[in-house]
Amino acid sequence: MLADYRQSYTVGAFDIDAYKRMTAPALLRVLNEVAMQHVLALKLSVWDLEPHKIAWVLLRLEIRIHRLPELGEQLSIHTQPSGFERVFTYRDYRVTDAEGKLIVEAATTWVLFNIENRRPTRIPSWIPERIPSQAAGEEPLFRPASTLPDWTAADQQLRYTVGWHDLDFNWHLNNTHFLRLLLDSVPSAVLREKTPQLIRLHYKAEAALDDEVLAETAVLKDKHCVHQLRRGDVVLAQAESLWID
Hints:
- By secondary structure, the chain is α+β, with helices and mostly antiparallel strands.
- Helices cover 18% and strands 40% of the residues.
- A hairpin with a 2-residue loop joins strand 3 (74-85) and strand 4.
């Protein structure tokens, strides 16, 4: 079985912003897709886990962006599992450009989710047995941060109703859309004038079809923001981001 997985990708028109740069949500969508292809090869995909009433759920995400890819760029995306710890499993991603330069690093923390009681569950022994050891020559990346800055009063808010096309196969708001909504609540001056350099995102709870959610951003300093997504008083996600000129 493959200890790691590599896939090429061409940045398309659907992936970019007004500056013809790949957006962070588009980047996350592609990373998710490459991970899906790997778990298919490992026979640990949604179709393999469904008979056991379990599914993978993204818990924490940390993306470090050295530069955003541009429209038409040829990318190489490398992903691999990077370890287990109690109920957590980790997966790393590296994105390189056509010259082989590392432009994005991402690390993720996952848990198994019981699809009947909608709660995390222990990792059965047969799952680690199907995952090969670390790929030769590739050290694990950083672990996603376990804590984020405290929330403060919002500078900007965005209200949204979860629609059918926002759902994933677990019947909840796709993790990519969490990021999109949080970044859409960033003040437009930041989005127009700066580029995300670091994004840390913690998923706290599900959002379902027709849920009314509120995305909020607070600007702590000129280049540092904190974010939260909530449904009423229930916090669904928290995040922080750093931006460069």
